[in-house]
Automatic annotation (TrEMBL):
Coiled-coil blocks: none
EC number: 1.1.1.169
Top-level class of the enzyme under EC nomenclature: oxidoreductase
Function in brief: Catalyzes the NADPH-dependent reduction of ketopantoate into pantoic acid.
Top-level taxonomy: Bacteria, Pseudomonadati, Pseudomonadota, Betaproteobacteria, Burkholderiales
Residue stretches making up the Ketopantoate reductase N-terminal domain: 10-154
Organism: Variovorax robiniae
Pfam families in UniProt: ApbA (PF02558), ApbA_C (PF08546)
Source superkingdom: Bacteria
Signal peptide residues on this chain, from the entry's feature table: none
Sample GO molecular function, one term: 2-dehydropantoate 2-reductase activity
Protein name: 2-dehydropantoate 2-reductase
Pathways per UniProt: Cofactor biosynthesis; (R)-pantothenate biosynthesis; (R)-pantoate from 3-methyl-2-oxobutanoate: step 2/2
Amino acid sequence: MNADVAPGSVLVMGAGSIGCYVGGCLAAAGVPVTLVGRPRVLDAVAQHGLTLTDLEGNKRKVEAGAMQLAQAVPVGAKPSIVLLCVKSGATAEAAAELGAALPAGTVVLSLQNGISNAAVASKAAPGLKVLPSMVPYNIAELAPGAFHRGTTGRLMSVAHDALKPWLATFEKAGVPLDLLADLRAVQWGKLLINLNNPVNALSGLPLREELLQHGYRRCFAALMEEAIGVLAAAGIEPAQVTAVPARRLPTVLRLPNWLFRIVAARMLKIDAKARSSMADDLALGRRTEVDALCGEVVRLAQSHGRTAPRNAKMVELLDGAWPKPPQQLSPDAMCRALGI
Ligand SMILES: NC(=O)C1=CN([C@@H]2O[C@H](COP(=O)(O)OP(=O)(O)OC[C@H]3O[C@@H](n4cnc5c(N)ncnc54)[C@H](OP(=O)(O)O)[C@@H]3O)[C@@H](O)[C@H]2O)C=CC1
Ligand SMILES: CC(C)(CO)C(=O)C(=O)O
């Protein structure tokens, strides 16, 4: 296949960090892209276009006119594929809108964290073919219309014939995509890493700075260790999605700073600007995805006759206090809150 000819068009549902970065990279590679999003983001894109940068030092510019910008799924849209990029709490509503507007059978990649988004979307839009997918890297919105990839990795999705013609295009666009028969192990492996999202959000620090604080690492390690125990009880073997295997990560996280810097050098290859997607939610006063991350661990524990008190506590801290969750916790205060 000629990689210079896009196999079709792409609709991004939820133009935020992931949607603008992945959709923008595809647009920069010549793919016709529609960004469906909110005025906060779309107005900025209309004014400045997209500037896409990464930790390898690349910089791409996409003019606003090169993409279609829309606040709702355009009537009559027939995208070849849809990238579902809303936060977990918005999945059902966004999927229902897609289901009402798009032809039956349209393939939707759920480029979302957590375990259940594809199932939630399929329930809300049974006519669509929703595929669990995974984004390994961090994207931060640095300025209006400016999105930065601060870590590395390859997108993954459950395999589907409709995706095969797209692989060369995703590769050329700098957002390589791998297809797997089953994504469950990868999703759980990624969720273990995402247990740092609430720690990072509540630290008020960029990811790298937060991970260099021993107290925050102890909190991440405790949430992760608890989740690993629950996964073992459920017979789920999480895939390795970082340089350090999940089972060893809690021990590595608890190392003193000087040793952690050496042992976790590859893991610490994070751009100084990167912050977790949950930090954005807390900063913008939006409800966080804590229930789709820590809450998923709590529910898996319950379904196997166990408890996950530290993950439950994190849900309580952020969701229980909604709409006024704490904005920042010191490492000591967070350790105390989690009973560490
Ligand atoms: N950012 C990151 O580095 C990473 C994020 N992820 C995951 O990717 C997913 C997306 O995250 P991220 O890109 O950070 O999220 P963002 O919040 O940056 O982007 C989502 C955007 O979609 C908008 N939106 C919500 N519902 C609709 C709708 N019905 N129609 C149009 N727009 C809508 C939101 O607006 P509003 O909320 O204001 O309504 C928001 O602007 C999440 O599951 C996240 O966990 C995974 C890996 C890394
Ligand atoms: C890539 C990673 C792990 C970065 O924190 C993430 O998934 C997120 O921010 O939601």
